[in-house]
Amino acid sequence: MTKFRFFAMVLLFSAGLFAQDIPGLTHRELDNGLELFMVENHNVPLTTVQITFRCGALTQSPETAGLFHLYEHMLFKGNRAFPTQTEFMAAMKSLGVGNWNGGTSTEYVTYYFTIPSAKTEEGIAFWSEAVRYPLFDEAELEIEKDVVINEIKGYHNDPQDNFRQALVKRLFYKFPWRRDVSGPVDVVQNCTVEQLKEMQETFYTPDNGALFVAGDIDPDAVEAAVERLMGDWEANPQPYVIEESHPPMEQSERLVFQEPSLYPGFAKIGLLMRGPDVLDDPEATYAADVLLTLLSDPESRFRQTIFDKVPGLYAPEYITKSYYTQKDGGQITFGAFAVIDEGADPYEIAELFQNAVFEEVKLMVNEPDYFGAEEYEIMKNILEDQQLLAMEVPSSLISNLSFWWASASSDYFWDYIKNMQAVGPADIASYLEDYVVDKPWLLSVQMSPDLYEQHPAGEGYEEIVKESAYWWQSR
After folding, report:
1. Which domain holds residue 215?
2. Which of 106, 104, 127 is nearest to 115 (CA)?
3. Most buried among 105, 146, 207, 458, using CB within 10 Å?
């Protein structure tokens, strides 16, 4: 099993992929709250079955951080129908599974496989048994703890994980464990069967889940099978509610980090801010995504201006802006690569980059025609083209839908393209004023080790080191 990081998927999500009228898509909801999404496509005799729950790092506490990842592993260890991992894997083999996995993310946990369409109902039954009746054997739990702990130690020995979690520790300073899927080793080591059962009763319930069935299917037959197999699954009478969202940062900070993977003489600059959360401010998320698309043009005014103003930047196309849509963890990042020639100061270049970005952002706010009508038209065409591409493969469609269902809602999914295309200059200006202009920021500089030897932490910069990168190291 792999722990999903979703970084490769962010650009797809943020660029916009969805429309209300998707051929073959049917949405139903059972009386117990389980949502059912079906995509009928008879191009190939295959079916993908995926089940997703709204939980993960977002629903962790300091005492449970990392346990959703452990729970994901334990689901594959056996259940009422297939009591051992050997029997579990043999059952998948008998179904003709060609592609399968489970993943734990910041805002959802998901399981899926692709099988011959003739065995669609058996596949639904398989996941029904797996998620409803896991055994949580004590001895198997101890074995799997070691597996997960080895994974965690691997992440903690990864410089990029050290860097990312150091940023999380500051950007989401009040609840950083909500953005840490791995968690600390001691929490996993001390996990009990009783904790897993409590998690099951709280989060792995039909009213907190959605089933996605896509491919060569008969929707009526699928709906009947789901009703028969999962209709008696009891909902949680007291569903989990996030009582407090991540607050904005309180103050700006500067960080520096030695990154061994960077070429000698290279630096990577990042300017991060807290972005909109999709449930609190959906309108701002549409504006954020539209702006991302407008700035993705390699010849955009923004990129070219930043490149001209800041000496040492590698190339305009490596000047980036990203936004990650989340229920409770929206993040905005501007970035660039720089080549530090002899006599140049990487910290000075970082400061120039930051100033140039904020200058351009203020122009976007104050000049309604910063982006021309033609640029908006091109952006809309890009969105429509991406929508068509995304609908080509049913398994990809439900993977994307699963993300949006968990982090936003199905309504957000249905209306996404319509709302994106309605965004104009005033909406982008409002988004930037609310989340970027004069807001606290994180300025980070990653350097190759040889470069850091020449330019140790400058004034006002704190060096990120493995020994203090994670939130749990300062408990």
Report:
1. 7-230
2. 127
3. 105
